[in-house]
Amino acid sequence: MAINNSSENSLQLNEVIVAMVPWPEHGHLNPLFLLSRFIASHNIPVHLLCLTARNHDLKKRIHGVRRNATDENLYFCDLSVPTTEAESDKDVLLEKLGESICEKCHILSKNTNRLVIIHDCLMITYIRDLHSIHNIKCYSFHSMSSFVRYSTLRQVIHIVDEDQEKLIEELGDEFPTVESTFGPHLEEYIQEEREWKLNSGVVMNSLRELEGKYIDSLSIYAEDNMPVWCLGPFHLLLKSSLDLCNRSTQHVCLEFLDKQDVNSVIFVSFGTTTTLPQEQVNELALGLEQSNHKFIWVVREADDERLDMENNSEGKDGKIVLPEGFEERVEGRGMVVRNWAPQLEILGHPSTGGFMSHCGWNSCMESISMGVPIASWPIHVDQPYNTVFITNVLKIGTSVWNWTRREDIAPAAAIEKAVKTLMGTPEGEKMRQRAVELSDKIKNSVSHGGLARKEMESFISNITNN
């Protein structure tokens, strides 16, 4: 099946066209890509407006899954941003990207009765020229958890909440602050978001069975009774994303898992934006070795945090050095994977019994939906809040290293303890049982007739009929 490489090649008058405007980093882009495929499956043209390099990655992913005819409704609109005198200025690059997005949206708007724009909330600053398009409806997308959004909003506008006050009292300094996670400008962003007029609703990367309390609380403080849709977990929207058994090429780590006992392996991965210092890599290796538990460890350097306009980051060679003799000593018990591993398939494998993670929200959603408890090791931004949610609210995980000591190297002993707690204690087994119960609720909710599925269909109805 051919992939639609260009949105302009297929322009025709449509009742509704959807334009996806992601923040151009993988953690934000991935859920919107999956949402794009879901919307396209309803016979709605969806145009993904993204940097050429990012779209290149996504096209390769389409080739890597079982596709269906509805993917013909997905169009990749490649945006290239010239890098001249301001090559290293991220704000300037984003301004230019925003200009390109607005130009493309103007073109799309002439070929439809209604242009629906679903944009990452962080792009508001850069797409203000959209207000000149008369036939648009805009929906703001939030890639982070409702718990994070509520917890940070509460710190900025001082919402009274006895439950969270009790939690903060229990955790003391361990409860993250806006200053230690998002920095000093969050209040400015929240004000800018509240002043954004082109908003027909909010899309959350969540579901009510998981975060109902915080979703309801956010709705109370939404401007003008703004409708809120919870459309996660995005990887469960399409059946093909769940069909883990039908894989054309089996990754070597899946072959390793096929030989292991149920719930016997811990998966270790820190996402695409984290590079651990060499000293920390050494301690992590020692901790895994001393735990005597089976593991799969994804070792990679972070993607370049700059907005790479031309280069494809996928498959980048890792330069991280493991301790001498480590892989030989753990052979048969542990596996090291360089750069990329099929995370969702690993988490969905019955041999995987735990996940040591940076606690990015996409990883949390994948782990919870697969019934896998988490050894949480937050690195930055929203991850410390996610850790609190996982360990203290849902109680399906344990903390590897205290957020207040984030500047220190976590010793091997702490890593060994976290692995043993999650994988070899009654406490860890209780976490696993709670995770499995949540997984069952989530899968029931996204199945036909479930609450999350009904909410998804309600959103489709809203963008097509209203």
How much helicity do the residues have? 40-55%
Number of helices: 18
Give the strand content.
Answer: 15-25%
Instruction: List how many beta strands DSSP finds.
Output: 13
Low-confidence stretches: 240-248, 309-317
CA(first)-CA(last) distance: 33 Å
- Average predicted confidence as pLDDT: 86
Shape: globular
Alpha-beta content class:
alpha/beta
Please list the strands of the largest sheet in the order they lie side by side: 3-2-1-4-5-6-7
Largest sheet: 7 strands, parallel
Radius of gyration: 22 Å
Architecture overview:
The chain has helices at residues 26-40, 52-63, 90-109, 146-157, 162-171, 178-181, 186-195, 208-220, 239-242, 252-258, 278-291, 326-329, 343-347, 361-369, 383-393, 412-424, 426-446, 451-465, and strands at residues 14-21, 46-51, 74-79, 112-120, 136-142, 201-204, 228-230, 265-269, 294-299, 334-338, 352-357, 374-376, 397-399. Helix 11 (278-291) packs across helix 16 (412-424) and helix 16 crosses helix 17. Mean pLDDT is 86; it is low at 240-248 and 309-317. The two termini are 33 Å apart. 43% of the residues lie in helices and 15% in strands. Helix 8 (208-220) links the parallel strand 6 (201-204) and strand 7. A seven-stranded parallel β-sheet has the order 3-2-1-4-5-6-7, with helices on both faces. With 466 residues, the protein is α/β, with parallel strands linked by helices. It contains 18 helices and 13 strands.
